[in-house]
Amino acid sequence: MNDLAKRSFAAAVLVAVALLAAVRGGYFFAVLVGAAACVMLYEWRRMVRGSDFGWQVGGFLYALLPAISLLWIRDRAIVDGHFIGLELLVWVFITTWAVDIGAYFAGRAIGGPKLAPWISPNKTWAGLVGGTVSSALLAGAWTWMTALPVALFVLAPFFAIAAQGGDLFESWMKRKAGVKDSGSWLPGHGGALDRLDGLVVVAVLTAAALFGGLL
């Protein structure tokens, strides 16, 4: 099985598990989120081993904040008296997944100038644009189909760019730690931090927008 096939199969399994957990909600979703946060913290601590206390605390917050955000979105997202938890959670997923897919294929098909070669030599400006456009279109379609707040049409491209910033941050951490991937448990993807770096950002920003009354 080639690398693309491995990545596609692993991604399909992750998507299926995430959507099933999102639909089930309750303890099922909470356990999945908690397990993911624990793996993220383990990988973070392994990468920053020997660093100062600030990095240890930073890893705890990096794992905790998105976990709380996802749980709050799923169970507490109410806008204008309507509960939109499941729909908004799926919007978070779509926004993040579309970035990864669009950036991967646009980067491979178009190539061109590198985005940040000193951090991640494989990322290109074409990938950034492709990921942002894909996310805006797919998240926008979901927003329209489910009648989510119209502010999400505007927020999607900005959150998509922020997700790619999260990806670059995690790439910088790996370079600093001298490792290729944060882990090896997921074929074609690496570890939990490799797969969830964009979701961390989008989840926290969406929860902040909801809490701040932007939706």
From TrEMBL:
It is an enzyme of class 2 (transferase). It comes from the Bacteria. This is Phosphatidate cytidylyltransferase. One of its GO terms (biological process) is CDP-diacylglycerol biosynthetic process. GO terms for molecular function: phosphatidate cytidylyltransferase activity. Pathway: Phospholipid metabolism; CDP-diacylglycerol biosynthesis; CDP-diacylglycerol from sn-glycerol 3-phosphate: step 3/3; Lipid metabolism. The keyword tRNA processing does not apply. It catalyses: a 1,2-diacyl-sn-glycero-3-phosphate + CTP + H(+) = a CDP-1,2-diacyl-sn-glycerol + diphosphate. Keywords: Cell membrane, Lipid biosynthesis, Lipid metabolism, Membrane, Nucleotidyltransferase, Phospholipid biosynthesis, Phospholipid metabolism, Transferase, Transmembrane, Transmembrane helix. Its EC number is 2.7.7.41. The chain crosses the membrane at residues 12-41, 53-73, 88-105, 150-169. It is a multi-pass membrane protein. It is found in: Cell membrane. One of its GO terms (cellular component) is plasma membrane. The keyword ATP-binding does not apply. Belongs to the CDS family.
